[in-house]
Design goal:
By secondary structure, the chain is α/β, with parallel strands linked by helices. It is built from 10 helices and 12 strands.
């Protein structure tokens, strides 16, 4: 049995951690460096930072955040949001990130995944897929913060990302994001079953039970959560204790 990972996610805007619902209505949660340090010390297996500041100033701020985080944490961390070129990737990795997350730019130019995997290694490329359920029962890939429908089937797109060289897939349910009703198990399972690379469940976690559930009902490699950790609803240690109690293999907190 593979060891499952628990990954706190920190959305960063103008140098602060924020959180919203369905990608909207952002509230400030705290300092990303201090929060990352705390999570690293308290059992997080990895961390994910999403830079939601779209401006050039935001990008410079994020590079500074990445440098400071790299000095404070001992676990691997991924940085995504607004990464469009090989130069963007290089800047983030050189600042100390272990991996980068690519979303909108891959939809615009899929070759970026292949080029970045070749230059930096597949293991450092996380393909993020924001997916929304449509009335016909299919999930469409959404871009621009979950607002723009590309019309691309999310399951087929995940397969394509694997073929292009992505090292892992991070699917987020736009419908579930921040709602705390639990992960979209159907979406998650469909993507897990479609690809051979690791998949990280994201979007909708409201309690420790939801994390156990996604591990029990799908074969994801990791579960990502934000609100439940930022708001102190549950600790990483408590999540891992429940996982162990239910027979899910996790690392020590």
């Amino acid at each position: 049995m593979t060891t499952k990972k628990i990954i706190p996610c920190l959305d960063v805007k103008d140098g602060k951690v924020v959180k919203g619902i369905n990608f909207e209505g952002m509230r400030e949660m705290g300092d990303p460096v201090e929060m990352a340090k705390s999570y690293s010390e308290n059992g997080a297996d990895e961390l994910v930072f999403l830079d939601i500041s779209a401006t050039t100033e935001g990008r410079d701020t994020m590079v500074d955040v990445v440098k400071r985080v790299a000095e404070k944490v001992t676990v691997p961390f991924t940085v995504g949001g607004g990464i469009r070129t090989l130069d963007d990737i290089e800047r983030i990795l050189n600042a100390g990130a272990d991996k980068v997350g690519i979303n909108t730019a891959a939809v615009a130019r899929p070759e970026l995944i292949a080029e970045s995997a070749e230059k930096f290694g597949s293991e450092r490329i996380v393909a993020a897929v924001d997916a929304k359920l449509f009335p016909d029962g299919t999930w469409h890939v959404m871009t621009h913060g979950g607002l723009k429908d590309t019309g691309i089937d999310a399951i087929e797109w995940s397969k394509k990302l694997e073929e292009l060289g992505a090292g892992s897939i991070l699917p987020t349910s736009v419908d579930r994001d921040g709602v705390k009703d639990g992960y979209d198990l159907e979406l998650t399972k469909a993507i897990v079953d479609a690809v051979k690379i690791p998949v990280i469940a994201s979007g909708g976690c409201g309690n420790a039970e939801h994390i156990v559930e996604v591990f029990e009902k799908t074969n994801v490699d990791a579960a990502l959560a934000a609100s439940i950790f930022h708001e102190g609803i549950v600790t990483i240690g408590e999540v891992k204790a429940l996982c162990k109690e239910r027979g899910v293999e996790v690392s020590e907190a």
